[in-house]
């Protein structure tokens, strides 16, 4: 049993089994979700698509959880998985250095060319000082993900995990299956991921 | 100069993804960092790229940025005096 679960695709947003209304699709959907449910973090607009996706998905989860926000804590880890690493950011950065006659490497694009930037973004916003990990897998494999979460819980400091699948191939193609899970409820994690 | 200031504001908004902001919203005399537009160190690097890309200005000493990026007006004045394109 997961405490809370959110699914975001370019066409759909489902929070704890309930479909959320929206007007936009693709990358514009993420901006709509930000404006509707967040709105106070303009750094969102500087992020790559993977980080935007992770930020809005985590916000929906944490708002559903309803606990006090932005208080420093070490007992929550952030553990994400995907297949495409930071492909969208890598492509955006490559575009700034593709042509020798127009070679202007973008620092703002470069800083997102690692998938684990999104785990850091979420940890910074929420003052999480526990573990953050981003693991790139050949495919969405619930068994391996459950094993990694189990490893994260071996740290006695970690009492809950904001984790799951967070994949993005370009600005309009992405998939988030994120959840919040407590250590006590971890036994059923594998079947819940399926 | 007014035209350069307006163009520079547009370029800053685009380069730094200052969503929902229009050139009119930026006070050309306000500080770009800290209390003003609240830019960060990565934004400072983007401004260096902006000046090279659009005006052919390559800062020899990055520490010059502290003075040049004081405000849009100061930046525009520096560009007008040093631009190569």
| Order of SSEs of chain B | HHHH
CATH topology (fold) name of chain B:
Non-ribosomal Peptide Synthetase Peptidyl Carrier Protein, Chain A
Q: Which stretches of chain B of 5+ consecutive residues score pLDDT under 50?
A: none
**Pair of chains with the largest interface and how many residues each contributes:** A-B, 9 and 12 residues
CATH architecture of chain B: Orthogonal Bundle
Would you report the number of β strands of chain A? Answer: 7
* General form of chain B: globular
Can you write the helix and strand succession of chain A as a string? EEEHHEHHHEHEEH
Mean pLDDT of chain B: 91
Tally of DSSP helical segments of chain B: 4
From the 3D structure, determine the CATH topology of chain A: Peroxisomal Thiolase, Chain A, domain 1
This entry's quaternary arrangement is heterodimer
Write down the Rg of chain A: 16 Å
CATH superfamily of chain A: Thiolase/Chalcone synthase
Number of structurally distinct domains of chain A: 1
Largest sheet composition of chain B: none
Widest β-sheet, arrangement of strands of chain A: 3-2-1-7-6-4-5
